[in-house]
Amino acid sequence: MDRTTNGFRAKFEAYLGNYQRFGSYLNFYHEAFKILMKDVETTGGHVDRIAYPMLFIARHCLELGFKTNIRHFKKYSEKNDYANSDSHNLKDLFHAFILHVRATVKNLKDKHGIEVESTEIKEFEQYCSELEKLTLYFDQVDKGSFSFRYPVDKKNNAVFKFDDRVNLLDIEELLNQGMVLLNHTADVFGKYTNYVDDIEKMYEDEMRSSYGEW
Known about the structure:
Blueprint (H helix, E strand, L loop, with lengths): L5 H5 L11 H22 L7 H27 L12 H23 L5 H24 L26 H21 L1 H22 L3
Helix pairs in contact: 2-3, 2-6, 3-4, 3-6, 4-5, 5-6
């Protein structure tokens, strides 16, 4: 295809300002990982040639996913832990994510009398157990989001030993499971948190009606 045609060039025109949401970044990074996995599967090339960027992408998916959910649930958890953090420590972010969800469940019951179904809490905890496996792997090999970007650390030591290896199919399986949790936790608990939002809006509307614009 002629690269100079308007139609061809239009495919590569990126509208960088149109998707400024954490959730969009999360899903676009995941899409890039899936495309690269498909490339290895269909072209016959070995994964070594793109393993570092693929692992960085997978790791960054977790970081984005934790931060996306922390930002969403902080309103209901009333916690500030890692709410606007620039940390790259996945283990800390993972535990902060769980903290915000658990605190949300507690506040829903204690403050609003809303009981989250036990089966949904149990399912959340099960998905967390699976996601923890990938979190701990990345915490072990790339604690500071460094090892997949540079071949040496700050002391000029090699970040990997010669015989270090990982199978990207295992990473893919854990990442796909994790994406279910990271993408849909807000939706699952939404039927409860939406009620809180409705109550707050009703209260705000009543205040505006009684006292006018603040």
